[in-house]
Amino acid sequence: MNMRTEIGRMLKTGIETAFPEASDLPDNLSSMLETPPDPNMGDLAFPCFRLSKNLRKSPQAIAQLLAQTIHEPETADVSCIGGYLNFSFNKSNFARSTLESVLASPGSWGSSSEGKGKTVCMDYSSINIAKRFHIGHLSTTVLGNSLMRIYRFLGWNAVGINHLGDWGTQFGKMIAAYKHWGNEKMVEEGGVNALTSLYVRFHEEAEKCPSLEEEGRAWFKKIEDGDPEALKIFNWFKEMTLRDAQKVYELLDVHFDSYAGESFYNDKMGRVIDELKQKQLLRESDGAMIVDLEPWKMPPCLILKSDGATLYATRDIAAALYRKDTYHFDQCLYIVAYQQQLHFRQWFKVLELMGYPWAKDQLHHVAFGMVSYEGKTLSTREGHVVYLEEVLQRAQEKALNIIREKSPNLDNPEKVARQVGIGAVVYSALQNGRIKDIDFWWERALNFDGDTGPYVQYTYARCSSLLRKAAPVNAAAPDYNALANDEAQAVLRILSRFPDTVREAADKYEPSMITRAVTDLAKAYNKFYYEHRILDQDTASSLARTELTKAVADVIRTGLWLIGIEAPERM
User: Fold this and answer.
1) Strands 331-337 and 301-304, how do they pair?
2) Which of the residues are catalytic?
3) What was the pLDDT predicted at 555?
């Protein structure tokens, strides 16, 4: 039984009984329920001011009459505080209904089919070719991976797209650097690190010899024109980068349905340019072609440079049209840092002006904060970069040292270290609201105490250990009165709200809501664990507490999976 739905039903019946003359009442009463700031005030509350206009009464008068009318003590006691109608669940029945619901669908509590028949495209990670996967791509990668899992959990067809950064003058510069200072053996042995060194050297040398910039542009023009030598080197760099990045994706358990990057749309620009001309949206400005967005208080959207070259906006428009035609999406999410906010507003508006109304309500820029490293901004050009593979490897090594110290007899310590170490890094990226900047510090990210991934994982392992120790119980039924205490009720409230948390995380594109929910659940369960003996001689009570433990383990495992973290059975 969903208590929010049940309270909504009680509320509807009470209003119809107390105010038979009422009409045009809202039919989404359960969604209007709020959680009181203090549990002593109740488990759910209804703000009666929502009914004042319809019923032509004060919120206090409405609350008082409804409190006198609604009487279902087997579900909840009703009281009023000011203009609020408060519901305090019957603790024993609340425990029974919540645990029965969670345990009836192991691994899927909180899932739904609400997205059935709908498609969401997710553009995330979007690494740059000829550069190693650095920590600056951590947020977009884990955010996108989590949102993919959340949407699929809610029944959506989710399409993951890695929109590779594989176009632009920088690739001409890379080839120029390779021709001047590199060779095949050097690059094959050094891999993407060698390409990065060449890129850094190009900019160092270009400061002394500015003509190198023109040489880089010339090589990129060769790529655009299909020059065999330029394309061979370019594709070689691209294949090498993807092989290197795949090692990180495997560690994070991240998968994509498409790797169509910027170069994929090189032959799809014509449609965009032709439509803009046909609809008289293009105008010339200093030799370039733009779409004027001054009426919407935005700078012009640059479509073609003075030399006829396309830009990011042109390619993003072409990509959106291709994805709509190919996937027929209902939503398309772009998980990109907030610095690009104006860029997305501009080309979203251009698509809308082109006559595509879906651009207004189906395209969404899911912005997130920037990642820095120990107070320093990351810059490949300046050589200040922290590679994500090295971060993940170091996290595993640190986790392995701790595990060997605390659990020397643990089977498969390397596997657990991988789960814990990588989980710590992912958790650090999804712990707070996505719009906040992340300053990555080893000491914080790999702290195994407090609000951390390892803490939540350890709670799951604790639950698993208890369940392994629990002997078969002969009691006919659990005694849910054993869960009427404050500590158990706090756990149950978090369990019961988990489906709403998942749905809200999807609606707001905010995986941190799930991160916070599993952390709060772990804290609440540990408090219950320390205050109450789980297994004792009272078999009926033990069964109830064991069921609670089983539900907690299930929801923690589910929540961790939704944010891209594994749950070790032993730690």
Assistant:
1) unpaired
2) 131, 134, 137
3) 98
CB proximity list for 27: less than 8 A, separation 6 or greater: none
**Sheet harboring 119-123: ordered strands across?**
157-161, 119-123, 331-337, 363-368
CB-based contact 366:333 (threshold 8 Å): yes
Instruction: Give the number of other Cβ atoms within 10 Å of residue 188's Cβ.
Output: 11
Look at residue 37 in the predicted model and tell me its pLDDT.
87
H or E element in which residue 247 lies: helix 228-252
pLDDT at 445: 65
Give the pair of three-digit tokens for residue 61: 């008068």
Q: Where are the beta strands (DSSP E) in 3-115?
A: 44-47, 76-81, 84-89
User: Are the CB atoms for 386 and 135 separated by under 8 Å?
Assistant: yes
- 220 CB neighbour count, 10 Å cutoff: 22
Q: Which residues contact 67 (CB under 8 A, 6 or more apart)?
A: 78, 79, 80, 85
Instruction: Give, in degrees to the nearest 5, the angle at Cα 42 between 40 and 44.
Output: 145
d(CA 216, CA 309): 15
The domains located in the chain, with CATH, are 3-89 (3.30.1360.70), 119-377 (3.40.50.620), 388-562 (1.10.730.10)
With 0-12 / 13-18 / 19 or more C-beta atoms within 10 angstroms meaning exposed / middle / buried, residue 339 is: exposed
Q: Are 154 and 115 in contact (CB under 8 A)?
A: yes
Please give the Cα distance from 44 to 247 (Å, whole number). Answer: 47
493-496: long-range contacts, CB 8 A cutoff, minimum separation 24: 493/39, 493/43, 494/520, 494/521, 494/524, 495/98, 495/99, 495/102, 495/109, 495/521, 495/551, 495/552, 495/555, 496/2, 496/3, 496/4, 496/94, 496/98, 496/101
Does an H or E element contain 116, and which?
none
- Beta strands 363-368 and 331-337: pairing type? parallel
Averaged over successive runs of 10 residues, the pLDDT of the chain (571 residues) comes to: 84 91 79 88 92 89 94 93 93 95 94 97 93 88 98 98 91 92 90 88 90 90 89 91 93 96 91 96 94 97 86 95 98 96 98 97 95 69 73 91 89 94 94 87 70 93 93 77 96 95 97 98 96 86 95 98 97 89
Output the six-digit token pair for 311: 């830009």
